[in-house]
Amino acid sequence: MDSSQAFVSTSALNLMYNRFVSCKPNNLCYRERLPTNIYKSFQAKRSEQDENSLPWRLGELLSPRKQFDRIQPKSRVPSDDAICICGTGRVYKRCCRPFHVGESEPRTALELLRARFSAFAYRLSKYIMGTTHISNEDWTSDRLSWENSILEFCDQYTFVSLDILENKVAGPDITYILFRANLVEKGEPVNFIERSKFLKDRNRWYYASGRLVDIERGF
């Protein structure tokens, strides 16, 4: 198989590595079933005790000296006077920019949702991480791999628009929002409908969780 086509997800490799390190030295039943290149990479990772030393692509496993490097930034941030993509109709400097640069905080969960959507569109990965609640399944202390996964997602799609379908305030510190994110992937429209949960923690709103309701593809 062409190594460029062989991809092992971060979660899959983490599971494999956790099983690897949990095996007792005299129990090789699992280790012996690992491909040689992955086995050697796991051995090196375990000896170095460095979580960032393990490359995640199978092609890179064939070259042990390669490291999991940071994806280089590509600016998509619009001019201050451009219309913000979040859907309010306001220009960026009067809409999501103050949130993105830390000048102010979203006052509602809906403002945060819009700010996060535009942050995805503009590749502002640090804002996405900073507004994700620690209870969210995507939250991780491995900031490098988390940021890279966000940027890979941003680069996979062209972000078009955001539709708010339902905004349910369940209490002063919890809000549920049903929305449609309208995107384009390789020239084909793809719309994600998600029901998200937002929590207010220490007077700040965070994205806590999301459940994918539907995916619409095609024109």
TrEMBL record:
In this chain the YchJ-like middle NTF2-like domain maps to 108-210
User: Where does the source fall among the domains of life?
Assistant: Eukaryota
Gene3D superfamilies linked to this entry: 3.10.450.50
Under the heading InterPro entries, the entry gives:
NTF2-like_dom_sf (IPR032710), SEC_C_motif (IPR004027), YchJ-like_M (IPR048469)
Cited Pfam families = SEC-C (PF02810), YchJ_M-like (PF17775)
The protein in question is named YchJ-like middle NTF2-like domain-containing protein
Taxonomic lineage per UniProt? Eukaryota, Rhodophyta, Bangiophyceae, Galdieriales, Galdieriaceae
